[in-house]
Design a protein that fits this description.
The protein has 367 residues and is of the alpha/beta class. 41% of the residues lie in helices and 19% in strands. It folds into two domains: 169 residues, Rossmann fold (3-Layer(aba) Sandwich); 167 residues, Rossmann fold, CATH 3.40.50.2000. The strands form two sheets. It has a seven-stranded parallel sheet with strand order 3-2-1-4-5-6-7, sandwiched between helices. Strands 10-9-8-11-12-13 form a six-stranded parallel sheet, sandwiched between helices. Helix 4 packs across helix 5, helix 5 crosses helix 7 and helix 10 crosses helix 15. The longest helix has 16 residues.
Length: 367
Amino acid sequence: MKKILFVLHEDRRTGAPKVVLDFIDYLKKKHKEEFTVHIFIKTHIGDLYSELKELADKVFIKKERGGFVQRLKNYIKKKNFSQILKKEKYDIVYGNTVLTMDELNTVNKICHNTKTILHIHESQFLCSLFLNKKIAINQFQQIDEIIAVSNFTKQNLIDNYNVSDHKIKVVYPYINLADENKNINQELKDKLKNNTDLLITNIGNPHLTKGTELIPQIAQKIRKRKPNLRFKILIIGNRLENEYIKAVRLDIQKLRLQNYIEIIDFTPNPNEYLKVSDLYIITSREDSFSLMGIYANIFKIPVVSFRNNGGLSEKYEAESFALADYLDTDDFADKIIELSSKNKDNLHYNSSDFINTGLDEIYKILK
């Protein structure tokens, strides 16, 4: 039996940690006799902790520096990564996101026969934001295998970090619908659709890469083109009232779009909003691969996104998916109006291409 350690940069309920949760669930159901599964969490938020703890054989939380009381607390509850490696002697250490690069580098220094795998979900901008390029180039060379979520992600590693093509395996994100409630929340639908002809959603923590500040501009252009259209755009997933989201709120106020845009704080069940929507928009400047875009496709919700902004268009080729010219908000507004005029139930969706094939591919890499 092989012993594997999954390293998570955090246990927040977001895309990358959820991928690990789904994959461990898959291993426990289909390959239980092959792996002992441990998890190391760098930043303990707690959203997924109970679910991870239920699935794994052991869960460790990173030991942090602090005063005597803090050190005592950490000694009791938290663990040092290097000490764990020396004691447990893993066959495989699997890092989930580039924020686990330092841990994988530590593995190579301590455990010379341990296979290291890095699963990269980040775009070009996020890699440049999180990584020191000179250091990262060397760290990438030490990793045995790399999983990229799209060719878009893979090409960034090749072009900017000198990673060899043969080291990277593209595995598109997978969707686990086993625990997905397929029923529509009728009360939520009635509330949101009241006096609304077109309900549009955008899901994800507002950020520069998500292009959230473009949404008021897009809404203004829709209103000018279709003054009688009763539409509303929901921006779902706000976690922090920082200067960025304050600027977006100010734009909404200055453009008098309060009746057209609503900012909704983070919810663990954003699909409840997606399922009652008429349209889903991805305004991202970069998005290595949009899991919410896949969910929209599966729920038969048309999608509008920018061309050349990520990996979704590598797999999603259907009349329910419209691409506007990059950062062209006029074109984006036109695509929304064009798609909204069609009966979404009659559009073509290629949802069968997105269900769980990636789980088997990652399992083969572990082997």
